[in-house]
Design goal:
The structure is a homodimer of 249-residue chains.
Chain A (H helix, E strand, L loop, with lengths): L1 H9 L2 E14 L4 E7 L8 E2 L2 E5 L4 H13 L7 E6 L8 H10 L8 E8 L15 E6 L10 H16 L15 H12 L5 H11 L2 E7 L9 E5 L1 H9 L8
Parallel strand pairs in A: 1-6
Antiparallel strand pairs in A: 1-2, 1-4, 2-3, 2-7, 5-6, 8-9
């Protein structure tokens, strides 16, 4: 009995604060985001993985837990992008129908704290559970509507990623350990949403000396195999130490 | 009677979400932050201006309202720096004593959303009201403790400002319209918390061509009057259009 009380206390949900996560992945062609399908006929089924926080956990912990619960994603680095608090953000009729079916206090005002992260698509197979009936990668370009204010959150996260990749080589978190220059080039184009001159791009990257070519080429590709490269973290850290933080894209 | 009900509804406080504002000012010598003195013998009296949000307003509106209510500061640009949600952030005994005297639900968990802004000290005289017994500029370097987690919030805001001034000439918001190169130099040193070689600094700034010299010198100063400059916004906007966003400091 005592145990149950403790457990009840531990799992007390905070009806006023949620977390939502924008998880980006790259499939060598385009930028994707992890969405859950709530399998509902009420309103828009697709949403960012997110839920109310527990009163016993901090915001970062809540984001990690929710991602694991809804999409089986564990131990990833999450970065907060800010709070979203429009008083009307959960009041659309279609969202309210879903909330009434799911939550103890469906009309309580909810402020959400948004996170973003970069995941190697090859390392993670989406697994849905809890109220998520499905979890999958969806091309960012194909998303025109989402539940609640999640489209606004996604757009803010895209902007953060754009700004960030111009300063830090975080794109390497979206690629496998070994990659071709074409793949790296296409990744930057997808994130920056603009074409980048291939020769200029290669020159800039190679001048910075933060990638190194491997004595290895692609295998099993239908075209002439390309040279493989890997990221040189030591070189990059050396650059950041001297204050370098602009890739010039 | 009806009116009162409506009014009560409009002024309903959300016991779970607050806003806190880090307002920076520069006195030609050092960086300052606007603090309120809650005039309490309970706990640490100094705090960032902040309070619970109303359920009818969004987060930005709440931040503007709270600043005006506590410190008489109106119509300033505020930028969100993120949410702070440690479950223990308001539970220190000294803070709890103050909350018990002030709030209807002193033990409710409060997540706070922090903002920062830059204000010209010459344009604003702090005026305390509401529960603020005093509002004043305090040198950032002299602050070693604040109520709640406000020291952590202040440190995050300082870091944001540091990052930002390296990319955008936002420092001009802290200076009067006309300023000397020495004042600008000292401002950058205060924000970046490191000495900057004076000649290098001047060369960089002048090379960027974003300030222009006026046909005017300082008046009424006890030393040889220095040349006055003003910020050239058009030139800066031209630079940002071509993607320039690194001042190299």
């Amino acid at each position: 009995m005592k145990k149950k009380v403790i457990k009840n206390k531990l799992v007390e949900l905070n009806p006023n604060v949620s977390v939502d996560c924008v998880i980006f992945g790259f499939d060598f062609e385009k930028l994707n985001v992890l969405l859950i399908d709530r399998g509902t006929t009420l309103g828009i089924p697709l949403a960012l993985p997110g839920n109310l926080i527990y009163n016993s956990e901090n915001l970062d912990e809540a984001a990690s837990r929710v991602l694991e619960e809804l999409a089986g994603l564990k131990n990833i680095y999450l970065e907060q992008i800010g709070a979203f608090g429009d008083p009307l953000r959960i009041t659309k009729i279609t969202d309210q129908e879903w909330l009434k079916a799911m939550r103890a206090e469906p009309s309580a005002r909810v402020i959400t704290v948004a996170y973003f992260s970069l995941v190697k698509m090859s390392d993670y197979v989406p697994q849905a559970s809890s109220f998520a009936k499905n979890a999958s990668w969806v091309s960012v370009q194909e998303i025109s509507e989402l539940a609640f204010d999640h489209l606004e959150i996604l757009n803010t996260a895209k902007e953060s990623l754009k700004q960030k990749i111009r300063r830090q080589p975080i794109g390497f978190n979206l690629l496998p350990e070994k990659f071709t220059l074409s793949q790296l080039h296409r990744l930057y184009e997808s994130i920056l949403e603009k074409p980048l001159d291939k020769r200029n791009f290669r020159r800039k990257i190679q001048k910075l000396d933060i990638i190194e070519s491997l004595k290895e080429k692609q295998k099993g590709v239908p075209h002439k195999p390309s040279q493989l490269f890997k990221f040189n973290k030591e070189k990059y850290e050396l650059l950041t130490k001297i204050g370098f933080d602009n890739f010039g894209f």
